[in-house]
Amino acid sequence: MNWKVVIGGGLAFFAVSFLVGSVTGMVIHTGILTEPYQATSQFWRPELRQDPPDIAALMPLWIFNGIVLSLVIAALYNLVRPAFTGAGWKKGLTWGLMLATFVAAYHMSQSGNFDLPGTIWVWWTIDVLILFALSGIALGVVADKLAPPG
């Protein structure tokens, strides 16, 4: 396990997903999905049901979970990176799109369990596609800089 890739690449993945997620959060979660979220409020944490939502109360949890997830994603990338060819950005993009495909499949499976509108599942998947593609690029670039292949 190359810990430079795990730590450096994981933090790069987190930083990009956090920054891009701030934008997609405003557009998708605070904009497009406002009405579906209000119609399904029983599914959401109490902090999100407040008016206005108490984002600050959830931020430590979101940051902690995001960092852990990003480190896991970078560790897995470190294991499969030799299977990819091309520049770091291309390898990272491929990895990010692969992960987004798994998440999309998971969303499809969970849509059969949770009574949420299809709109929510579709937009969550679009959000993950954007976040993982761009964050994957950052991971791939940083991984190749910190631990050049070969």
Descriptive notes:
The chain is mainly α and 150 residues long. It has helices spanning 3-32, 34-39, 46-49, 55-80, 88-110, 118-146. It contains 6 helices and no strands. The chain has one domain. Helix 1 runs antiparallel to helix 6 (118-146). The radius of gyration is 17 Å and the shape is elongated.
Features:
150 residues, mainly alpha, 6 helices, elongated
Structural class of the helices, strands and pairings? mainly alpha
Query: What is the alpha-carbon Rg in Å?
Result: 17 Å
Count of discrete alpha- or pi-helical segments spanning 4 or more residues: 6
String of helices and strands: HHHHHH
Tell me, what's the shape? elongated
Mean pLDDT: 96
- Counting DSSP E segments of at least 2 residues, the number of strands comes to 0
Low-pLDDT stretches: none
Query: Residue share in helices?
Result: over 70%
